């Protein structure tokens, strides 16, 4: 599947289509252009795309409202691509464009399940790609030059993107073929039945805890998917919980909520820490990395925070700020409120590590802060509804005993 505005990117789209066809792939082209004539006849016209988005193309062209036009084509492209996938017609998708084309192309890609190859060649790839990628598995490729005609660089970039998509599509087909052959032969190498999935949240400063819990859960017949607490990671985890992927959740690292409270960059949005409680998925929750909010390079930290707060340069691109007692009180209130709002309190347990919440929050480490931690613990202690189990352990979050206690509790909740 190729998604592109053929009124402005027709030459480039024709080049991409020819490379895909040379590899033996059947290519369907969806036109998302609004104002001009397409450079060649697509399989899905701009009129069809606009209609699927709930509006006539002529009306969009007459109004000349770019924002409205892009939104309509995003809706239409997503609807058409999702329908084609349901009919077994989409093995992979590629898009090309600037900001508008990327908005439309990635909307179509986000409508597809995880695992379907998705490549977006775009001038927007080296900036903030979160609005385009969302919780999907889109590969964003920097076009280097604007997608405006074919030249020695654009040919190279478009070719590499096409070859990447070809490799993904053909590789998946070959893997599926081999698996069918093994299954038909009853071979020992055939895939085992899928194990129940567990979602886990992690930051670098809680890795030891997550690794120990993951090892225990895997030994007991579960497969663990670990999500990095970068905002997108937590949002993706919540989205997959909502869609029924998981038998349970071990939410060790709730640091994205600390970013919400303290003004950091890695918040995961209002859905964070809500979906398991709404859906009845067993969950064990802790407060990993609640001692920090995340900012970019040091000069991106707001001046009033640079002057008055404890900062740590984690790497050239990330500066950490120690959360203070007031922020930890607000964080405790937020965690309690989110868990209290769930409909299945008996399927939730909260674990507090009283000797520190991250590898940086330990004696001799830069964020060691018993007073700040106690502000968090006492607020959760006071605010959490009484029918949610609360366990306090006199250990550090990265102690193996704490990790195993959380993992055992999750297995218990699932098996109930």
List the helices and strands and how they pair.
Elements: E1 2-4, H1 10-22, E2 29-31, H2 46-52, H3 57-63, H4 66-86, E3 93-97, H5 99-110, E4 118-122, H6 130-133, E5 139-142, H7 152-185, E6 197-202, H8 207-219, E7 223-228, H9 232-242, E8 248-251, H10 255-262, H11 275-279, E9 283-285, E10 292-295, H12 303-308, E11 311-315, E12 318-322, H13 325-340, E13 348-353, H14 370-383, E14 389-393, H15 400-415
Parallel strand pairs: 1-2, 1-3, 3-4, 4-5, 6-7, 6-8, 8-9, 9-13, 13-14
Antiparallel strand pairs: 10-12, 11-12
Task: Write up what this structure looks like.
With 416 residues, the chain is α/β, with parallel strands linked by helices. It has two domains: 2-173, 3-Layer(aba) Sandwich (Rossmann fold), CATH 3.40.50.12020; 197-415, Uncharacterised protein family UPF0261, NC domain (Rossmann fold). 45% of the residues lie in helices and 15% in strands. It is built from 15 helices and 14 strands. The chain has helices spanning 10-22, 46-52, 57-63, 66-86, 99-110, 130-133, 152-185, 207-219, 232-242, 255-262, 275-279, 303-308, 325-340, 370-383, 400-415; strands at 2-4, 29-31, 93-97, 118-122, 139-142, 197-202, 223-228, 248-251, 283-285, 292-295, 311-315, 318-322, 348-353, 389-393. It has a six-stranded parallel β-sheet, with helices on both faces. Strands 2-1-3-4-5 form a five-stranded parallel β-sheet, with helices on both faces. α5 (99-110) links the parallel β3 and β4. α4 (66-86) packs parallel to α5 (99-110). It starts with a strand and ends with a helix. The mean pLDDT is 95.
């Amino acid at each position: 599947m190729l998604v592109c505005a053929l009124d402005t990117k027709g030459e480039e789209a024709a080049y991409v289509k020819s490379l895909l066809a040379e590899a033996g792939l059947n290519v369907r082209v969806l036109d998302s252009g609004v104002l001009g004539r397409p450079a060649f006849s697509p399989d899905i016209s701009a009129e069809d795309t606009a209609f699927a988005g709930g509006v006539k193309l002529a009306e969009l062209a007459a109004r000349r409202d770019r924002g409205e036009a892009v939104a309509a084509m995003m809706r239409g492209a997503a609807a058409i691509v999702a329908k084609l996938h349901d009919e077994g017609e989409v093995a992979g998708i590629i898009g090309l464009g600037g900001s508008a084309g990327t908005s439309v192309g990635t909307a179509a890609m986000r409508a597809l399940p995880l695992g379907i190859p998705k490549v977006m060649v775009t001038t927007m790839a080296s900036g903030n790609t979160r609005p385009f990628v969302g919780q999907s598995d889109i590969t964003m490729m920097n076009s280097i030059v604007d997608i405006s005609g074919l030249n020695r660089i654009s040919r190279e970039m478009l070719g590499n993107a096409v070859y990447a998509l070809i490799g993904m599509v053909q590789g998946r087909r070959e893997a599926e073929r081999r698996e069918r052959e093994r299954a038909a032969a009853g071979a020992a190498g055939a895939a085992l039945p899928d194990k129940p999935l567990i979602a886990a949240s992690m930051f670098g400063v809680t890795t030891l805890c997550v690794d120990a819990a993951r090892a225990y859960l895997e030994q007991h017949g579960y497969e663990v998917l670990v999500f990095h607490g970068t905002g997108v990671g937590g949002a993706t985890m919540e989205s997959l919980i909502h869609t029924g992927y998981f038998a349970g959740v071990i939410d060790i690292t709730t640091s994205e909520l600390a970013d919400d409270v303290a003004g950091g960059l890695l918040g995961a949005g209002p859905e964070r820490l809500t979906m398991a409680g709404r859906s009845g998925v067993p969950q064990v929750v802790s407060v990993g990395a609640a001692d920090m909010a995340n900012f970019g390079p040091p000069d991106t930290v707001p001046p009033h925070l640079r002057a008055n707060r404890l900062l740590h340069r984690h790497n050239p691109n990330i500066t950490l700020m120690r959360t203070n007692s007031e922020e930890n009180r607000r964080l405790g209130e937020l965690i309690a409120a989110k868990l209290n709002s769930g409909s299945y309190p008996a399927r939730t347990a909260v674990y507090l590590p009283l000797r520190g919440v991250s590898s940086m929050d330990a004696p001799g480490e830069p964020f060691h802060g018993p007073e700040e931690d106690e502000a968090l613990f006492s607020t959760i202690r006071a605010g959490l509804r009484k029918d949610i189990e609360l366990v306090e352990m006199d250990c550090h979050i990265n102690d193996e005993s704490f990790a195993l206690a959380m993992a055992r509790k999750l297995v218990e909740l699932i098996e109930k």
